[in-house]
Write a structure and sequence with these properties.
- It is a single chain.
- The chain is an all-alpha fold.
- 50% of the residues lie in helices and 3% in strands.
- A two-stranded antiparallel sheet has the order 1-2.
- The longest helix is centred in the C-terminal third of the chain and has 24 residues.
- The termini are far apart.
Length: 143
């Protein structure tokens, strides 16, 4: 069992964030006779998963929903984690495509140095792209 300080040190996540995740049901602890939190070492894996998922842009709601599919009362197995991660594959593939498009188009746009709205890839004269929806639609995958 780990104290909240040990868990924070090992995971690189602040104690306040750990308490927040606990309040949201993402991690759990037991209390000692002195009412101090203690965490199973398996909590490190859950925190690592939460941190990785946030870094790739998954919302806390998505993370909560995914973690709720893991078994209660036992440490998740490799099979459990695989099943969970497989459910996100399509979303992550779409995100990778979107990031690659942004990288490729932004390199050309910013890197060209033309500073000309006449030849800019993101130019939208007459707002003809409004029908495709809000935002920088040329930086979104065609779909």
């Amino acid at each position: 069992m780990l104290t909240i300080g040990q868990l924070a040190e090992r995971s690189g996540i602040s104690t306040s964030a750990i308490r927040f995740y606990e309040s949201k049901g993402l991690v759990s602890s037991v209390r000692t006779a002195g009412n101090q939190r203690r965490y199973e070492k398996a909590t490190l894996r859950r925190l690592g998963f939460i941190r990785a998922a946030q870094r790739v842009g998954l919302s806390l709601e998505e993370i909560t929903a995914a973690l709720s599919t893991l078994p209660a009362g036992r440490t998740p197995t490799k099979r459990d984690w695989h099943r969970l991660s497989r459910s996100w594959r399509t979303r992550l593939d779409e995100q990778i495509e979107r990031l690659q498009l942004l990288r490729d188009e932004l390199d050309g746009c910013i890197g060209c140095g033309c500073l000309s709205l006449q030849s800019c890839r993101l130019r939208n004269p007459g707002d003809v792209l409004a029908a495709r929806g809000p935002g920088a639609v040329r930086l979104e995958p065609e779909g």
